[in-house]
Specification:
The complex is a heterodimer of chains A (about 110) and B (about 500). By secondary structure, chain A is an all-alpha fold. Chain A is built from 4 helices and no strands. Chain A has one domain. Helix content of chain A is about 75%, strand content about 0%. Chain B has 2 domains: about 260 residues, no CATH class; about 230 residues, no CATH class. The longest helix of chain B has about 35 residues. Classes of the chains: A mainly alpha (about 110), B mainly alpha (about 500). At the A-B interface, helix 2, helix 3 and helix 4 of A face helix 6, helix 7, helix 10 and helix 13 of B.
């Protein structure tokens, strides 16, 4: 497998993740999009380590620490959703949630409760 | 004694972290206790540990000087930043101790506060990318846990807390991706390696920096992505908002400063279009913050919007640096001054407004009517603190004596002056809107005096005096007038 192919494949994964984050309307898709970017970064580390730096361990160690800490953070957030949100709030997150929601009240007037 | 000195040398520069960790360890024995006596005991322990950590942080630097290893970097900038974090945590301890002492999880909340302070210190002193990244992730995690624990009983705030923290998660993931690009450039493991390398102009580094820039923009909830931030601040408890304002955001500023040298390298070599881009983004962020504050009647939202305005000032500094008006060192100093201004002014102002909200039962600006007549001492302090927000007007000075006038790019200079003038006018309107409200007659006619605890007067006065002293010293120094403090000059420090 050529280095160029890996880079293009990786770019595609990253862009897929970004597109998913911008387009997704539920929290599950959002987390899947996050995974795409994480995988893309991990493939970057591994490919650079193998093809450029002769199996340098630094990239592998970074992946272990990085992935463990990020997944720990995401686990806590998912746990919070399951434990603390009531069914109505959960439904909003599953069916009608956007990470980059822009409303008029964000910069003008009041935020009605 | 020699043994203690030996231990101190071995753990340098982590003395402050060890003291805080010891306090967490002691607290863990009482974590499930609901007794008030234990809660008070833990408050005292936490307070002592924070004061000791503050002292040890400065003492270790004075006694051992700069420290640099493959894992940690500890210089003047780091000492100042760690001191700010500890000072901020001390204030948060005060707020949590006052407002949350009846909570069943009080001791656990204090432990989480110390954990987040420890993670924040690690973020600041981290010398290599793995330690930095792991500390940042754990810091976001502890802040999330802290905010969630402080709002356990407020059901309506939960979706907003969740919406808020999904954004820093994306920031962390983008950082992970950015570091993979840095690694690809030339197996870089720390910021110093990049700065001293010939591969600094590698396109992967530039791409990584763009990713970091986007990640930081999302971290700060800058315009137009402020929805979750405003939603959470509006619905959460005050102590939770204080954690966001005085721990989450300052650490973001410090991360920004950490990448400052690398950004400065690229920005210094960039074209005029880069300067214009930064100017437009800075202007939009600051103007949107001000307009948002003017059009709302909620005190919480006013403070949140103005916080975003001050965050936009960092972008203004970048644009001034990219235009060649201020030097790299001045950029660092102005950024640091901005962080100090934010912390020293927002802490007392938000605490007073929270007390007013508690007494009036509403966070409407109309609740402030007559406050200036009934609590004159507090209001005088508040007015001084509000007026300190006009300090960014001093940006006009370097613009006036800029080298750019002689180099021919006068238009850029004039645009920057216009931007600063417009945002300062809007900020002044915001400030005087609140001040006028203090002296308005209340709709009911009679104004009830809000009774603040006695220590509150000392607390507010302390901040006001610091702001006054620093303002006077800085103004004298900028004007070139001797302050009579010997050869000491604030701007002589090399960050």
């Amino acid at each position: 497998m050529s280095f160029q192919f890996i880079i293009y494949f990786n770019l595609a994964l990253f862009l897929l993740g970004v597109f998913g984050i911008l387009y997704s309307k539920d929290i599950v898709s959002l987390f899947i999009s996050y995974q795409f970017i994480i995988i893309s970064a991990a493939v970057n580390f591994l490919s650079f380590s193998k093809l450029l730096y002769k199996y340098s361990m630094w990239g592998v160690i970074f992946i272990i620490f990085g992935v463990v800490s990020i997944y720990f953070l995401m686990f806590c957030i998912i746990y919070y959703i399951y434990m603390k949100l009531d069914p109505l709030q959960k439904r909003v997150f599953y069916r009608n949630f956007r990470l980059f929601k822009i409303t008029r009240s964000d910069w003008w007037g009041e935020d009605n409760l | 004694m020699n043994f203690l000195i030996y231990i101190s040398e071995k753990i340098n520069p982590l003395q402050s972290i060890i003291v805080l960790s010891a306090s967490v360890l002691i607290s863990s024995f009482f974590a499930v206790s609901g007794r008030k006596a234990f809660k008070k005991f833990i408050i005292v322990i936490t307070f002592i540990s924070l004061i000791s950590a503050f002292y040890l942080n400065i003492y270790s630097f004075i006694s051992a000087g700069n420290f640099s290893s493959s894992l940690l970097t500890f210089g003047t900038l780091q000492v100042i930043e760690v001191s700010m974090i500890l000072f901020s945590t001390l204030n948060l301890l005060l707020f949590i101790a006052i407002y949350e002492i009846d909570c069943n999880h009080f001791i656990k909340i204090l432990m989480l506060l110390l954990f987040s302070a420890i993670c924040a210190i690690f973020v600041v002193v981290a010398g290599n990318f793995i330690l930095f990244f792991t500390s940042l992730t754990l810091f976001v995690l502890t802040i999330f846990q802290l905010a969630a624990s402080l709002n356990l009983n407020i059901s309506k705030s939960r979706p907003h807390i969740l919406g808020y923290f999904l954004r820093p998660v994306l920031t962390v993931i983008l950082f992970f991706f950015g570091f993979s690009l840095f690694y690809g450039a030339a197996e870089f493991k720390s910021m110093d390696q990049i700065l001293n390398s010939e591969s600094i102009s590698n396109p992967l580094i530039a791409l990584g920096l763009i990713i970091f820039g986007i990640a930081m923009y999302l971290y700060f909830f800058l315009f137009p992505f402020q929805n979750p931030y405003l939603g959470m601040v509006k619905r959460s408890r005050f102590s939770s908002n204080a954690v966001i304002w005085f721990l989450y955001f300052p650490v973001g500023f410090f991360i920004f400063l950490k990448f400052g040298d690398l950004y400065n390298y690229y920005i210094g070599k960039s074209s005029i279009y880069m300067s214009i881009t930064f100017m437009v983004i800075a202007f939009v962020c600051m103007l949107a913050g001000n307009i948002g504050a003017i059009t709302t009647g909620s005190i919480r939202r006013i403070l949140s919007f103005l916080f975003l305005f001050f965050t936009g000032i960092f972008l203004l500094n970048l644009s001034m640096f990219s235009a060649g008006i201020i030097s790299s060192v001045s950029t660092k100093w102005i950024n640091m001054a901005n962080i100090l201004l934010i912390m020293l002014s927002f802490i007392p102002i938000s605490s007073v407004f929270n007390e007013v909200e508690k007494n009036t039962g509403s966070d409407s600006i109309n609740g402030l009517a007559g406050f200036g007549r009934s609590n004159i001492f507090i209001v005088i302090n508040l007015i001084i603190l509000f007026l300190s927000w006009l300090m960014p007007a001093l940006y006009i000075l370097p613009l006036m004596r800029s080298r750019m006038v002689s180099s021919g790019a006068v238009a850029l200079n004039i645009i920057l002056m216009a931007i600063i003038a417009i945002v300062i006018i809007f900020l002044t309107v915001n400030i005087f809107r609140v001040i006028i409200q203090f002296f308005k007659r209340s709709p009911g006619g009679t104004v009830q005096k809000i009774r603040f605890p006695r220590f509150f007067y000392i607390y507010i006065t302390f901040f006001t005096l610091i702001i006054l002293a620093v303002s006077v010293l800085c103004l004298l120094e900028i004007s070139g007038i001797s302050t009579g403090t010997g050869s000491f000059k604030i701007t002589d420090f090399n960050l």
